[in-house]
Amino acid sequence: MMSNQAINSVVIVGGGTAGWITAGRIAAEHQHNPSIEVTLIESPDISPIGVGEGTWPTMRTTLLKLGISESDFINQCDGSFKQGAKFAKWVTGEDDDFYYHPLVLPQGFHKTNLAKYWHEQHQKSGKSFSELVCYQEAICEQGLAPKTIRHGEFDALANYAYHLDSAKFSAFLQQHCTEKLGVKHVLANVESITSHDNNDIASVITKEAGEIFGDLFVDCTGFSALLIGKHYDVEFVPCDDVLFIDTALAVQVPYELDDSPIASHTISTAQDAGWIWDIGLQHRRGVGHVFSSRHTSKERAYEQLGKYVGEGFEQLQLREIPIKSGHRKIFWKNNCVAVGLSAGFLEPLEASALVLVELSAQLIAEQLPACRQVMDVVANRFNQTFDYRWQRIIDFLKLHYMLSKRTDNAFWVDNRNPDTIPNSLQELMTLWQYHPPADHDFSSNNEVFPAASYQYVLYGMGFVTENLTHAVCDRDHNLALQQFQLNQQAISKASRLLPSNRELINKIRQYGLQSV
Q1: Global pTM?
Q2: Using an 8 Å Cβ cutoff, are 115 and 485 in contact?
Q3: Cα separations (Å) of 435 from 301, 451, 515?
Q4: Domain boundaries, the chain
Q5: Is the domain covering 9-53+165-239+326-392 a CATH 3.40.47.10 domain?
Q6: pLDDT, tens digit (0-9, with 9 covering 90-100), for 79-116
Q7: Using CA atoms, how far apart are residues 64 and 60, in angstroms rounded to an integer?
Q8: Strand residue runs (E) in 305-455
Q9: CATH of span 246-322
């Protein structure tokens, strides 16, 4: 390629959620530029992994950017509303042990840091951190939706994300991208790759559709990493010395009744050597046990999953999915960028996989190089940004494990071993002994998890910040008390106004939401 050659043809190799989100974001961003052509090549013989059913609030922006109706999405993708995650039995393992990581910021977060004052209120009321500073735990405990049918699409009383059927979502995106955004869809198996003299990919040669040329190639081929791994041999950096989970057992569980309640949050219940996810969709639940095979057997994990699911478990179809925690050393090499599982994977805790796809697709779409000359600059920025994001996600996931007080299995004890905790996280933990997490503790504007997320996990799991910083004036203390009162008022209002998750979804299926 000549250095001044325009980047007009983007070829995405691989479908699934990662491929179609990336194709859609690029096509939507450049739909008024007729010279930009987006092609997605998808193997007709490979099925996607299909268990990524939890999202972040960023998905609302993604759907908006793609021009997708929220009502259509909910109706066609078995979608339901997600308002955070409930972590059960992560601290002590007792039946009453749980905390929330909600999606709403603590009350008055940009006015004052309530983490400085919550312990005093906790001693008086016995309420958890998230219950005292945020109204969303109360909403989730009552099974309420984040909005009413009177709210328009993507509008809400409380911040929310979605739970979805990933197979239906991929098909839905495929139809939208091809029919509404002009993405060219090619069903073919890639057999070989040709290169320019500078080692850029010139084309991929397929069995069914022949040779397909492109200026920029996006690797969405999943764990096989056909382009970034097999062709470019970019190193995979494992992190199994930090995150021990390496296996998942997944099942789809039908509801007992058609009108069974739908949990408005992801439920993560700790086990001997891992945890079980429980995601409520409209017509079923997605349930799975992720565990460390170094600390328990597959038979024991199967037994615990069966006990959790209950009657009828033996009749369900079980999928076993290996997990290799880690990521590529770089994500963009020459004119190839990896998105999704080809870039890496950690574990499903906190639903980081799909948000990384969204963020990658957004950056590629918004900073699509104008010509080959500037591609290396964009690639370098992309690599720096996403290496930082992966490291911070690893830190945040490790936080959940290292704070546990469980001793029933070496899994939990080993997770507290300082040798398994990244230095960056150890430094933050030292800092947070003496002042609560704040946004200025982080050096980048590329944070995936804000300071509030760290607060919810730290104080939800019983971490104590010593009040040894500068004295707090009465004015700040009074402001904090006001915020606690406002939060209680917000809980009362939400409890009074909001329908159940099931009730709202039924109304959306019947009437739809007011479109944007």
Answers
A1: 0.95
A2: no
A3: 39, 12, 44
A4: 9-53+165-239+326-392, 246-322
A5: no
A6: 999 999 999 999 999 999 999 999 999 999 988 889 88
A7: 6
A8: 319-322, 326-328, 332-333, 336-338, 344-345
A9: 3.30.70
